[in-house]
Amino acid sequence: MDETQLRPATAADFPKIRALILDVHINPTGLDWRRFWVAEMPDGQFAGCGQIKIHGDQSRELASIAVAASLRGRGVARLIIQKLLTLTDRPLYLTCREQLQPFYEKFGFKIIPQAGLPPYFSRIMRLVRVLRTLKLMTPTIIVMRLD
Ligand SMILES: CC(C)(COP(=O)(O)OP(=O)(O)OC[C@H]1O[C@@H](n2cnc3c(N)ncnc32)[C@H](O)[C@@H]1OP(=O)(O)O)[C@@H](O)C(=O)NCCC(=O)NCCS
Questions:
Q1: What are the pLDDT digits (tens) for 78-100?
Q2: Please, which of 75, 81, 121, 144 could form a disulfide with 1 given CB 3.0 to 4.6 Å?
Q3: Which of 46, 83, 85, 86 is nearest to 66 (CA)?
């Protein structure tokens, strides 16, 4: 989308990144602004963000993809994701609610079975299973990978 500007985040973006992530109810941990890219409108309005996390097992994760509700459906997430995909090696993993599988398939991600997950994602999925068993979490979470 032409009018949207994309740039690496600065420390000044951190409050907006955190507020958006909390607002859309996605994983609020690991929000180091140094890893983020942000999108903003020509008038400076904060439009969205995303990051690549590198975990202790060296697996890479596309994470914290979020767009302000009033600016969705205009290609902002596509812009952010396409940029992040140019910045990192493969394989690249992500976790998401199963409803977003078709969204991430547009970028080439494929759903993968639990067997063979990198240790970080195995731990996350074990935690998700526990939370679902305890009924502390309702959405079904999937892991996807881009090779
Ligand atoms: C999911 C989200 C990031 C999409 O942002 P967006 O800026 O509206 O997405 P875009 O406009 O860039 O859409 C890119 C493509 O995905 C499609 N798409 C957008 N949302 C979709 C959804 N929920 N399911 C399936 N496809 C979707 C668009 O139609 C578009 O397709 P096209 O390029 O073939 O026309 C946004 O709805 C959001 O912030 N949701 C809340 C936070 C969240 O769930 N983040 C994901 C965490 S895993």
A1: 999 999 999 999 999 999 999 99
A2: 75
A3: 46
